[in-house]
Specification:
alpha/beta, five-stranded mixed beta sheet, three-stranded mixed beta sheet, 7 helices, 8 strands, 49% helix
Length: 239
């Protein structure tokens, strides 16, 4: 009878010992050596899911200023208006577009390669509160709506000019550099924490090395850009 009672107790003791051994092994790193250690692919996959959950990364923000002038003539009279319009543009990465195939691990070189989605240009967020409009229309402005027409023409031209400035080579290069650094850091930190001190992370855009830079244009339409700016200015005036 005693042997029948002792057998379950012995089995329970072995289970407890194995559980304690596993805990000790995990805390001391023995379990990693027994089971092969942390897997860089698993770590990269977890980092990928974490980044996808962030949805969008604002890698770079820049402010541009456009100066535009419009003229019109009627009845032998002329009018001219000039607009100075600043606006902010965001350079973003849609992290939700990252797929598992975009992240690869090369065990021989200890390099994690990440293929990035194209940079997206969002904006411009025009600052009407800082805008300056001036000019002289004389009699033509007094008799017609020439000033209003010139102001609208200036605003349309200014927004188009802000977008053109934003897509120039220099800001696009700065945005790409900032985006690469942010993504490489996000993947490198978990690898470093897991003990892969010699791991390298290299992020690249699909079109890098091509003659033409590529990006996705998410610029705000003219009417919406002006409406957003007017709402911001009205909100600031109420404060």
């Amino acid at each position: 009878m005693d042997s029948r009672l002792n057998k379950p107790l012995a089995i329970a003791a072995v289970i407890v010992a194995l559980a304690l051994g596993l805990v000790v092994g995990v805390t001391t790193g023995i379990a990693d050596r027994i089971f092969g250690g942390p897997n860089p692919k698993t770590i990269a996959s977890a980092s990928l899911e974490s980044m996808r959950a962030q949805n969008r990364l604002v890698a770079f923000v820049a402010r541009y200023v456009s100066v535009t002038t419009s003229t019109t003539s009627r009845f032998g009279l002329s009018a001219k208006r000039t607009l100075i319009l600043p606006g902010d543009v965001r350079y973003e990465l849609d992290l939700a577009k990252l797929e598992p195939d975009d992240v690869t691990w090369d065990a021989s070189s200890h390099t994690l390669s990440v293929r990035l989605p194209e940079v997206e240009i969002a904006g411009p967020d025009v600052d009407l509160a800082a805008a300056q409009e001036y000019g002289a229309g004389g009699v033509l402005s007094a008799l017609t709506n020439a000033d209003q027409q010139l102001d609208q023409a200036n605003r349309e031209s200014a927004i188009a000019d802000l977008r053109k400035q934003a897509s120039a080579d220099v800001p696009m290069r700065l945005a790409r550099t900032a985006a690469r650094a942010a993504v490489e850091r996000s993947f490198a930190m978990p690898l470093l924490a897991a003990g892969f001190k010699d791991a390298k992370v290299v992020a690249r855009f699909p079109t890098e090395g091509a003659d033409e830079a590529s990006y996705v244009d998410l610029s705000t339409p003219y009417a919406e850009a002006i409406n957003q700016a007017e709402r911001r200015r009205a909100a600031q005036a109420q404060k």
